[in-house]
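Preliminary data (for renewal application), adenosine-5'-diphosphate complex.
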Amino acid sequence: MRRGEFQIIDRFFTHDAFGEWRSQGVGDDCAIIDMPGNRIAVTTDMMAVGTHFLPGARPEDIGYKALAVNLSDLAAAGASPRAFFLSIGLPERDDEWLAGFSRGLMALAESSGCALLGGDTTRTAEVGGTHAPVTISITAMGSLPEGKGLTRAGAKPGDDIWVSGTVGDAYAALKHRWGHWQLMPDAAEALFPRMDRPTPRNMLGSALLDLATACADVSDGLLADLGHILERSGVSGSILWEAVPVSSALRALSPAAQQEAALTGGDDYELVFTAPPSAALRIEQAGLLTKTRLTRIGKICEKVSGDNLTVRSQNGGIVTTPTQGFDHFAA
Ligand SMILES: Nc1ncnc2c1ncn2[C@@H]1O[C@H](COP(=O)(O)OP(=O)(O)O)[C@@H](O)[C@H]1O
Ligand SMILES: Cc1ncc(C[n+]2csc(CCOP(=O)(O)OP(=O)(O)O)c2C)c(N)n1
Ligand SMILES: [Mg+2]
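Predicted structure:
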């Protein structure tokens, strides 16, 4: 029987083959993959307990969300999830934690047809009496049809701005857990899964391949990620605050808190995208087909100097927020 590091890999990170991309199995220096299809999209995201997950988070949720945020990046490219690599640094061996992590991870892997084809498992050292927290890096790969793929560039003046689902829920849940905001028990219960188990919008992303001109997933916040689209597309844009879809649980908060959460909170893993008005009907159909709420929230215009994104209110005013969104190294 293998011991130590390799026992962890055998027990928690080796699974029967599934999905369309197959390798020779975990155990060699490289995964060698025979891939049908023409293009691949690749993304990587690193996550640490304390930064991306509360220290008391359930290992099942950590495993699920670690993969979900990567699948969300693939969704933003319109790519279908196929394979991923998992690198994990652990301060100590805790089989109960690992079993929960692996269950949550593999539940989403299997339901999305995204196979774990390799990775790396290390112990994080203790330096000066402190251990680095559990740190996870996932690299995910997806397939795209020949010549296709969504990017943040491509938004054109006259395009509509759309967003999927509702935004701000995960942030409100986090603020409640931090004790900064007080949600009613029912509202809190409704919002926790939005923070712990976000739904990557891969079916929607694929359906948008022939419809959207630019797309991003909302990880840092609606304004920040829409801002990336505007910057990479060389355009400006404006959105109407009252059009931004927020859940009924969020509506119980003050208008300022709703704005902070929905516009700048992040952790939503919804898609924000642009498309010409001529595509609107087909986009609505894509929403129905993929059972995803889609809302038109604004318009793209020619690039203006100064702030390139304006949030207007029905009363004619301009909505301002303290930040545009989450920034790991905000001053
Ligand atoms: N350390 C790095 N080395 C190379 N590229 C990076 C690094 N960090 C971020 N990037 C790239 O910078 C861009 C912006 O990163 P990020 O905002 O994290 O994207 P996302 O929200 O899709 O994860 C992405 O294209 C990402 O691949
Ligand atoms: C303990 C804890 N603090 C803060 C957050 C909120 N949060 C952490 S990272 C992040 C933004 C997205 O993470 P990032 O690493 O920037 O992902 P990327 O944009 O690269 O996909 C948010 C909103 C959280 N989920 N948990
Ligand atoms: Mg990133």
